[in-house]
Amino acid sequence: MSIGSTMSVCSVTFGLLTVHGGANPWVAAGIALLVGAALGLVNALFITLLRLPPLIVTLATLYLYASAANVLSNGTDINGFDGDGFSVIGQSSIAGIPVQVLLVLLPLFVVGSYVMRRTVFGRHVYTTGSNAAAATLAGVNVRRIRTILYVVSGVMAAVGAIVTASWLSNAQPTSGTGLELQSITVAVLGGTAITGGVGKLSGTFLALLLVAILDSGLQLAGVGSTYQIGLLGLVLIVSMLVRTRSVVRESAV
Questions:
Q1: Model pTM?
Q2: Has residue 244 got a pLDDT over 80?
Q3: How many C-beta atoms lie closer than 10 Å to residue 230's C-beta?
Q4: Cα-flanking dihedrals φ and ψ of residue 142, to 5°?
């Protein structure tokens, strides 16, 4: 639940380092990735060591991180860091394809797919998601798996903050507002089970494309953002109904 707020903190951190700290944008981007990892680790420690419910912890850090982003930036956008070719990430394209897709999204998708499908870690992730107790009895270090996943989640939020900052040429304390719900929507729409243990990055990738195309198409059609959110919710409900019926049919067979 705190993925959006994590992105906001990373965005503000990047902006402060470049504008007020005088850091090179690329160096600041690297530090923002470390900040994202640290914020993800905070979630992991509360959940794995103190054994607090993940929903409560991430909901709490959603508010804490959002507040931190606003306090650090004084509630204002940070501008003036477009230098050293940093804008190429979010504002350039190759053969009509945005650079952030070619150099960020696709490489991360390929690496993530390989890890989840071809490595022991990937299998342990699915096992932990399916049944953490059984995974522990099978020798899986569930705490370590969960900690790594929360850290990776924080890093991915930082990547989103960097790409967004390059695209907009500013860092916003509200850059991640509402994205936690969108990320959940894309994951569920792509076939990931909220109960865990089921899902593929390929399905998530296709769901992301569907949502992006839907948003772009609605904007071109002049449909307001309020209706866009409603239609996205409708698509999610329909997809869940279709999946539920398919599961029931498979169980009957």
A1: 0.89
A2: no
A3: 12
A4: -60, -40
